[in-house]
Amino acid sequence: MKYSALKISYAALVLSGVLTAQSVFAAGCTPAHKFDTVAPGTLTVSTISYPPFDNVQDEKFVGVDAEILKRFAENECLTVKAAVADDAASLQYVVSGRADISSASWYRTEKRAQVMGVSDPLYLELMGIYTKEGTKKLNDLQGKTIGTVQGYLWVPELQAIFGDKLKLYPNPVAMAQDLQTGRIDAAVDTYTAGIEAQKKGGFKGFKITVADPDDRVRSSVKPAQTGFLYNKSNAALGAALNATIDEMQKNGEIAKILKSYGLNPDASKVGDPRYADAK
Fold it and tell me: Mean pLDDT in the chain?
């Protein structure tokens, strides 16, 4: 997710009660690696409702991240057991040893890496520009009233460029409302969030584009990489997880998964591992 610190949390650290278990391996399977899991034979995943990356629908774990973890579980002869939680709870369940992995399209950050294991990068979170004209260059927004969400990594940089023409919102919903009613001329949010909203009928009459690289805004040049979070003490699990990610990057499987969910397959071109909050 896109927040510069840990993502926004909303409630107490309790699971929502949505639980699903999916078997993805055949009898007689030999795991590719050896590591411990919370429950033998099971990969326990704490996730959030964040389509198209993570969700539980009709008791099935679905989304881009879910497909990657199913492949990992298949390689390691594990049954995937996923439970939906709020953001903070998803992390706490891993830290406390009640889940093996937190899957929530997490940004790879130094701050998180200090307290949790952070997997190798899965895909990029691309910066998007939302306009009626299909604007791709930040420079073309000069003189316009622009909205974005407070706490996003690019806020300080956009403030330096647009000054008082940049309006900050507490959440994407409030920003979208002002964009659609004409209170602002353009919005800057993740490309994926806009595309997913359009699938559900949102942002009618607007074009959502990937922002062209602009050296003044790091996220447009080096977009944030996402990854899975796991217990820092379980290095063997992390190594096994990274082996599957590497395999899926090299054979193009992650690109195919992104495309199957209507996303830009180029987001799988992550480059060398880096942290979104690195100076």
Answer: 90
